[in-house]
């Protein structure tokens, strides 16, 4: 394809199928495919038509442009095959959504300028062309092929010999190779990860697929190793404050410490003083140095089930910036006074040195709160932990009055044996001590955001837009059908929380919570402070995790500069366009991390289920489409699929109104929230997918309504997904 575009560009951008066929030697039936390809290229604006009356070629008014650079003024520059060698300036101001980045391809309207350049006004951003692919080697009659790990990519690449010797069943990273216009796509293996059914292959393969680096460049590691601990010069001595860190059992970096006491001011009865101290990463990682460039590129740490890919080298994340007990560490502290309604009355920002008294875990703190302290938590209960719980109760009540969106979604953890094989997948325990730390961190984030907004400091806010109105309509329709009271004018986050708390049936609660979650917008980083819908807060930033999030580090720098807290701040006020681009980049890296973590967890779960030898599992239906059912298993949270071909010998219609499949002949229904027992038909380690067959199922309310509607009116006619099915187990 690239050869065709280059050939066309050399002839002015417009060619005929006969000219291309003659140049590339395309003969016979291949000319049909050639004409189809040229038609598609013209429809995409990547190729112009030859003028009929001999007057030479023309450049298409709409063409594909690749973003190649960003100039000193922040303008996007690009190249297009239609104008080889021409300077193309790209304008994306009218584009909805994120602006294109270097490496993106866009369809743009081309306009010449008086100085001989071209303006490209972006119409849409095209999917990025893959340069590498991660997949599993397999044998085929014509040689070795590569099946990708991406379940959305059904292509099979011809694997050509390279410097590495690979075997069937191995997962490899392969570089795509240019081929003839009509040849099969080819790939050359450049890295071998291991057998597809080996759990040790999962993390490196998923990391490579999402372009996540497993190691730091040597110059970055060397720079981190050169750093020396911060001194007390220019810092407040906070070592007399008995801070503690409270984290998970497997945490390796501790970037926040907390302490509280009742406020001694008689004018603030029932109030508390809360100090949240955060590791002073900005002191070590200065703007523009190699550590900063690498941290910005990564955007955030990534947490796989078996390891973490940190944003910063271990010298920083596990040593210099980790608030380890009984070791002096530099910090930025948010010193707040709260009234008895949980409102922040005063805030003071302090740059100091602290010494944590203990590294505590959520489980130990919760046990102490439940009356089962150990020797450490018993000693710390009265002076440290009890006041923290007092602060938590204030902040929790304030949150309930404010009305926020509370969706308690389980997080799943994988436990491994000594050989690295998964032996358990289960929800992580969730304690009140988790919420205690969350509320303290939210209070610190709000205090910083409010202070920076008041001083009009440009900064990246953590914003969360209101839900999509169309998705809210879908939710309202479903709630109306299952008989749950709901006002279509309800748009505040607390409305959703109150509605969910009023649902007593666990199966209905889970289904409705899923609808509420799907209706929500994605939280992102932006310099435009539109507020945080889910938390129902006007001002919110991420400040409390600079070891693992670059957004927090950027907020630290803004705070240091704005309040003149010493070295490591911004060099000057951030410019709007630069902050916009940083926010888009960090939002992308966050989504990439979430997708990679989710994929790795699913793949480990598939390997775990394959190894258990069990074939039947309980779960619930969490999605319905005309082509089948999505099922989430109890215990492991694994997601699998039941295709309509395995639902039995009937023809099923998709009842969109009730989110159900209804059998035309017998009226059997499968709907959202149905409790099911499924049989495992296939656990595919290549795609990381599970296929089930339903053994038993219990109708939820939506399926019962769909069945009643079928008995009254027959099969639904408004959007039919009818498919004549083969017998269960058939292929």
Quick structural summary:
The protein is of the alpha+beta class and 731 residues long.
Key words describing this protein structure:
single chain, 731 residues, alpha+beta, OB fold (Dihydrolipoamide Acetyltransferase, E2P), 5 domains, five-stranded mixed beta barrel, globular, disordered C terminus
Task: Describe what this molecule looks like in 3D.
- There is one protein chain.
- The protein has 731 residues and is α+β, with helices and mostly antiparallel strands.
- It folds into 5 domains: 60 residues, no CATH class; 65 residues, OB fold (Dihydrolipoamide Acetyltransferase, E2P), CATH 2.40.50; 237 residues, no CATH class; 52 residues, no CATH class; 111 residues, OB fold (Dihydrolipoamide Acetyltransferase, E2P) (Beta Barrel), CATH 2.40.50.
- A hairpin with a 7-residue loop joins strand 7 and strand 8.
How is the topology of this model organized?
Elements lengths: L1 H9 L6 H8 L5 H14 L18 E9 L5 E4 L8 E4 L13 E8 L5 E9 L5 E9 L2 E6 L7 E4 L10 E8 L8 E10 L6 H8 L8 H9 L9 E2 L7 E3 L8 E7 L9 E8 L1 H4 L5 H9 L3 E2 L4 E2 L4 H7 L7 E11 L5 E12 L3 E3 H8 L5 H28 L9 E5 L5 E6 L4 H23 L6 E3 L5 H14 L10 H9 L4 H14 L4 E3 L23 H13 L13 H37 L3 E10 L2 E6 L5 E5 L7 E5 L4 E4 L5 E3 L3 E10 L4 E10 L2 H13 L9 E2 L7
Parallel strand pairs: 3-5, 8-10, 11-18, 12-19
Antiparallel strand pairs: 1-2, 1-4, 2-3, 4-5, 6-7, 6-9, 7-8, 9-10, 13-14, 14-17, 15-16, 17-18, 20-21, 22-23, 24-25, 24-30, 25-26, 27-28, 27-32, 28-29, 30-31
Total DSSP E strands: 32
- Rg is 29 Å
Which structural category do the helix and sheet elements fall into?
alpha+beta
Tell me the span between the first and last alpha carbons: 36 Å
């Amino acid at each position: 394809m690239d050869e065709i575009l280059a050939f066309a560009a050399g002839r002015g951008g417009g060619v005929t199928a006969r000219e291309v066929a003659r140049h590339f030697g395309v003969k016979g039936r291949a000319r049909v495919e050639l004409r189809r390809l040229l038609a598609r290229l013209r429809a995409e604006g990547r190729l112009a038509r030859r003028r009929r009356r001999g007057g030479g070629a023309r450049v298409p008014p709409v063409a594909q442009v690749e973003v190649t650079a960003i100039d000193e003024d922040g303008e996007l520059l690009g190249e297009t095959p239609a104008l080889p060698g021409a300077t193309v300036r790209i304008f994306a101001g009218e584009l909805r959504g994120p602006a294109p980045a270097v490496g993106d391809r866009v369809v743009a309207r081309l306009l010449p300028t008086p100085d001989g350049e071209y303006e490209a006004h972006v119409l849409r951003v095209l999917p990025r062309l893959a340069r590498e692919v991660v997949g599993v080697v397999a044998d085929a009659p014509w040689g070795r092929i590569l099946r990708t790990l991406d379940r959305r990519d059904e292509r099979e690449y011809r694997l050509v010999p390279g410097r590495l010797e690979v075997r069937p069943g191995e997962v490899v990273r392969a570089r795509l190779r240019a081929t003839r216009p009509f040849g099969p796509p080819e790939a050359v293996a450049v890295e071998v990860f291991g057998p597809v059914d080996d759990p040790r292959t999962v993390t490196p393969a998923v990391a490579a697929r999402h372009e996540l680096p497993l190691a730091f460049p040597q110059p970055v590691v060397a720079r981190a190793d050169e750093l020396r601990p911060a001194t007390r010069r220019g810092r407040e001595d906070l070592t007399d404050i008995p801070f503690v860190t409270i984290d998970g059992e497997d945490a390796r970096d501790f970037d926040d410490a907390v302490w509280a006491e009742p406020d001694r001011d008689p004018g603030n009865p029932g109030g508390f003083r809360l100090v949240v101290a955060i590791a002073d990463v900005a002191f070590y990682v200065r703007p523009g140095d190699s550590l900063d460039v690498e941290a910005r590129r990564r955007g955030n740490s990534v947490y796989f089930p078996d390891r973490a890919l940190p944003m910063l080298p271990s010298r920083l994340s596990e040593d210099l910036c980790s608030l380890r007990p009984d070791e002096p560490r530099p910090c930025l502290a948010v010193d707040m006074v709260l009234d008895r309604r949980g409102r922040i009355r005063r805030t003071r920002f302090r740059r100091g040195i602290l010494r944590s008294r203990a590294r505590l875990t959520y489980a130990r703190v919760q046990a102490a709160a439940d009356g089962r302290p150990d020797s450490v938590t018993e000693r710390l209960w009265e002076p440290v932990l009890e006041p923290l719980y007092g602060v938590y109760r204030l902040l929790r009540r304030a949150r309930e009055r404010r009305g926020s969106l509370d969706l308690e979604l389980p997080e799943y953890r994988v436990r491994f044996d000594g050989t690295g094989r998964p032996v358990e997948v289960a929800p992580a325990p969730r304690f009140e001590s988790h919420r205690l730390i969350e509320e303290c961190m939210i209070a610190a984030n709000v205090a910083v955001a409010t202070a920076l907004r008041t001083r009009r400091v440009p900064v990246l806010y953590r914003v969360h837009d209101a839900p999509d109105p169309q998705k809210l309509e879908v939710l309202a329709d479903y709630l109306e059908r299952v008989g749950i009271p709901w006002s279509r004018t309800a748009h505040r986050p607390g409305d959703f929380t109150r509605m969910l708390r009023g649902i007593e049936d666990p199966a209905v609660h889970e289904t409705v919570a899923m609808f509420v979650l799907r209706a929500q917008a994605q939280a992102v980083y932006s310099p435009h402070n539109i507020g945080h819908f889910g938390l129902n807060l006007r001002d919110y930033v991420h400040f409390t995790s600079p070891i693992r999030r670059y957004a927090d580090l950027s907020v630290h720098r803004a705070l240091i500069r704005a309040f003149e807290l010493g070295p490591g701040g911004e060099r000057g006020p951030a410019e709007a366009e630069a902050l916009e681009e940083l926010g888009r980049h960090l939002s992308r890296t966050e989504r990439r991390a979430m997708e990679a973590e989710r994929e790795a967890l699913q793949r480990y779960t598939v390997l775990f289920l394959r190894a258990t030898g069990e074939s039947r599992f309980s779960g619930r239906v969490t999605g319905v489409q005309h082509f089948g059912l999505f099922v989430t298993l109890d215990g492991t949270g694994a997601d699998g699929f039941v295709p309509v071909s395995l639902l039995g010998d009937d023809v099923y219609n998709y009842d969109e109104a009730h989110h159900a499949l209804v059998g035309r002949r017998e009226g059997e229904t499968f709907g959202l929230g149905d409790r099911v027992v499924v049989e495992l038909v296939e656990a595919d380690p290549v795609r990381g997918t599970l296929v089930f067959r339903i053994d038993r199922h219990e109708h939820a309310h939506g399926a019962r309504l769909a069945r009643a509607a079928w008995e009254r009116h027959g099969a639904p006619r408004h959007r039919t997904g009818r498919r004549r099915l083969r017998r269960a187990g058939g292929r």
